[in-house]
């Protein structure tokens, strides 16, 4: 049976991964002042970053409407969908709404929507897992079971070089954020089981925070020899390569993948941000 994988644009992909597993994307959008960005293959990420630096207000992001998903769903018969955590975006709800609308019209249509309980490279790792399960020839029920097990055990961690967007978006108090910035405190953040953001640790300085991030892999990871480590970066390839090197030395991942952040992940991570998932 042929299966199609659809993701939203917070799923950071390389061309290699997209082509290998034939992944299609429903784009979110971003508004900063009077500038509108569609998070698709034509996005100018440097222009997005420039607008973010030049505005005091947080960027406003919008999920793909049900129509975006419907257009994609109509092209395929058997579909797996991976979305942003439903605690962070309406994307999951819109993907499910589109599914319900279409399944009523076509009983033969199969669509399974997975809430990633994550974002960025967390979504990437789920899509990658789905691709491998499909390639292995498993039936849909087995693919769903193994993917849900993977999501339940997945860890997502990140270190932000800039707290600006967290402060602008109200996720961190201005005073607290300014104190952290003044003393060069870098938070190590992670995803909760419910798909929200939580403080995992903190360090003084970016280098120490990245080292703590690598250490957290050993503290939180299980059966790493069976897993792929995904690393997403926003104009921080040197950090990503350092994490890849350290993780390869300390742990036994079967594969390590580096991807660049697309538009939505860039809004969350900001310049210099790093996100890992495994």
Automatic annotation (TrEMBL):
Pfam families: DegV
Keywords in alphabetical order: Lipid-binding
Chain ranges passing through the membrane: none
Keyword Phosphoprotein: no
Alphabetical list of Gene3D superfamilies matching this protein: 3.30.1180.10, degv family protein, Dihydroxyacetone kinase, domain 1
GO molecular function: lipid binding
NCBIfam families the record matches: DegV
Name this protein carries in UniProt: EDD domain protein, DegV family/intein N-terminal splicing region
Organism encoding this protein: Halanaerobium kushneri
Source lineage: Bacteria, Bacillati, Bacillota, Clostridia, Halanaerobiales
């Amino acid at each position: 049976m042929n299966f199609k994988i659809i993701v939203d644009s917070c799923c950071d992909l390389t061309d290699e991964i997209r082509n290998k597993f034939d992944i299609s994307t429903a784009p979110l959008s971003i508004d900063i002042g009077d500038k509108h960005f569609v998070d698709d293959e034509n996005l100018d990420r440097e222009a997005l970053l420039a607008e973010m630096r030049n505005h005091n207000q947080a960027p406003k992001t919008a999920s793909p409407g049900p129509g975006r998903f419907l257009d994609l769903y109509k092209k395929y018969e058997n579909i797996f969908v991976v979305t942003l955590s439903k605690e962070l975006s309406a994307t999951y709800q819109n993907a499910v709404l589109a599914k319900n609308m279409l399944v009523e019209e076509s009983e033969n249509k199969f669509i399974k929507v997975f809430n990633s309980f994550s974002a960025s490279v967390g979504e990437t790792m789920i899509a990658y897992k789905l691709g491998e399960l499909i390639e292995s020839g498993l039936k849909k029920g087995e693919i769903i079971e193994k993917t849900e097990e993977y999501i339940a055990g997945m860890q997502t961690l990140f270190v932000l070089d800039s707290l600006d967007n967290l402060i602008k978006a109200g996720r961190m108090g201005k005073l607290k954020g300014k104190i952290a910035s003044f003393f060069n405190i870098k938070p190590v953040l992670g995803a909760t089981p419910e798909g929200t953001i939580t403080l995992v640790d903190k360090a003084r300085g970016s280098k120490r925070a990245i080292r703590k991030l690598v250490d957290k892999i050993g503290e939180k990871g299980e059966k790493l020899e069976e897993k792929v480590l995904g690393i997403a970066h926003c104009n921080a390839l040197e950090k990503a390569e350092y994490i890849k090197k350290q993780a390869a030395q300390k742990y036994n991942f079967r594969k390590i993948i580096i991807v660049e952040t697309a538009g939505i992940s860039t809004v969350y991570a900001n310049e210099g941000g790093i996100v890992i998932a495994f």
